[in-house]
Amino acid sequence: MKICCIGAGYVGGPTMAMIAKQCPQISVHVVDLNQSRIDAWNSDELPVYEPGLDEVVREARGRNLTFSTNVDQAIAEADMIFIAVNTPTKHFGIGAGRAANLEFIEKCARQIAKVSKGHKIVVEKSTLPVRTAEAVKRILSSSSNGATFDVLSNPEFLAEGTAIADLLEPDRVLIGGESETAVKALADVYGQWVARDKILTTNLWSSELSKLTANAFLAQRVSSINAISALCEATEADIDEVSKAIGTDSRIGPKFLKASVGFGGSCFQKDILNLVYLCEHFGLREVADYWEQVVIMNDYQKRRFAERICRTMFNTVSDKKIAIWGFAFKKDTNDTRESAAIYVCRDLLRERARLVIYDPKVSKETIVSELLTALGDLSGTVSETDRELVHSNVTVVNNAYDAANQAHAIAVLTEWDEFRELDYDRIYDTMQKPAFVYDGRNILDRQKLTKIGFEIFAIGKSN
Ligand code: NAD
Ligand code: UDX
């Protein structure tokens, strides 16, 4: 059997590497238009940082896993084609700021229709609005080579930072489809390492909608606990104690109740906005408003954090040095898409703070590019003043100590483990006084830091 995957990103790369590792008899070809991404997949510096990914790729690459830009050839040779391209929020025209941009999906479907001969199974791996498979089927049916297709929906539930563990032992694999034979063919691939009772099959539309719904529910939990964190700060209740108290109720459960500076990542916001747009499209105003509130609450949490920094530092951060620890949207990834850090840094820059940023896995180019985009307008235009602001007020360093040296404050924006184990006496000595710490992830030992002399502010904790 031959599999091709279009899109060598955070989903296509790790997912296909796992299939290739677990199914040595299947030949897996991952293709992308982006030459430098493909070059990176073929090198020792993979484009995606994920614990355990290097080993999986090393085992299968060159054996039954290949990466290339030969899209047409890979499609032509494959029995099963996964589409794992990006589906970002549309930023122009109808539905701008909400709807998913399906341009890349449609281009893939057209390419498959053009190149294919015989029969192929096409698998939607990207996260898509419910009923996208209808459009995909129609485009494929226009194939002039007499090719025939079955379309399946097989959304991906991996989380970044734990992708390998999630792929190895998924809670479930979801396959939506009409053709029993096609569903079985895909179930047989996963069946090589996933227990059969964890492979759920549904109709196409339930599968497409389940992905958006799962992300909406997960994000809603984070926004719910973050909403309560604001109330904790005003009332001397402690958010970690509240999380524990409610999470022990087996109906609520303990996971995804960690208050934070706000959720980030390429999925939650995009997928909820997509859900909101769909509800609006179907005339379900109240349903749309309900889900939109999850994103509104998240924006509030990010803004609130930056405002608390300004307020508690005597209402001005202008020309003050603030160490930013962590820029990725969560630990154990180099991904910065929609990271809360971007928006906190943007707000602090607008207050003319001087930022010294450290993240163990994110490059200076990425940080600067994210900040320029955040400061720019919707069309991507950045004013000369904002460019100058980033140029003069942002420094990127390669360790947490250098970031904190001579700083007025430290803001912890990503929960990297290394931040728990630093020498805080040493850090305190090098900082300006009062030495403020803003823990946006509640990972630091408040008692210990207070004893050293820090003034520490944490999410959902009153001072
Ligand atoms: P990504 O941007 O990292 O990767 C997508 C890749 O597709 C890019 O490298 C791009 O160059 C390539 N591409 C686009 N159009 C192409 C074309 N016509 N031909 C060949 N290559 C093309 O995106 P991602 O994070 O991997 O996400 C992919 C999809 O999976 C999205 O729909 C996303 O919502 C979904 N998803 C993502 C995650 C995650 O954790 N990142 C988890 C579950 C689902
Ligand atoms: C998410 C879904 O979990 C995954 O199933 C889906 O396939 C893709 O989207 P991801 O965005 O990679 O995965 O990471 P996730 O662990 O869900 O975290 C998302 C954001 O929420 C991060 O910024 C994280 O720090 C934040 N978060 C998560 C919290 O603030 N508190 C929590 O309790 C959990």
Describe the protein's architecture and organization:
The chain has 463 residues and is α/β, with parallel strands linked by helices. The chain has helices spanning 12-22, 35-41, 53-60, 71-77, 103-115, 132-140, 163-168, 180-190, 204-235, 239-247, 268-281, 285-312, 340-350, 364-375, 384-393, 400-404, 424-430, 446-452, and strands spanning 2-6, 27-31, 65-68, 80-83, 119-124, 148-153, 173-177, 199-202, 321-325, 354-358, 394-396, 409-412, 436-439, 455-458. Strand 9 (321-325), helix 13 and strand 10 (354-358) form a beta-alpha-beta unit. The radius of gyration is 23 Å and the shape is globular. It binds nicotinamide-adenine-dinucleotide and uridine-5'-diphosphate-xylopyranose (UDX). Uridine-5'-diphosphate-xylopyranose is lined by residues 156-160, 215, 218, 222, 256-258, 260, 263-265, 267-268, 329-330. Keywords: NAD, Oxidoreductase. Residues 323-446 form the UDP-glucose/GDP-mannose dehydrogenase C-terminal domain. Its EC number is 1.1.1.22.
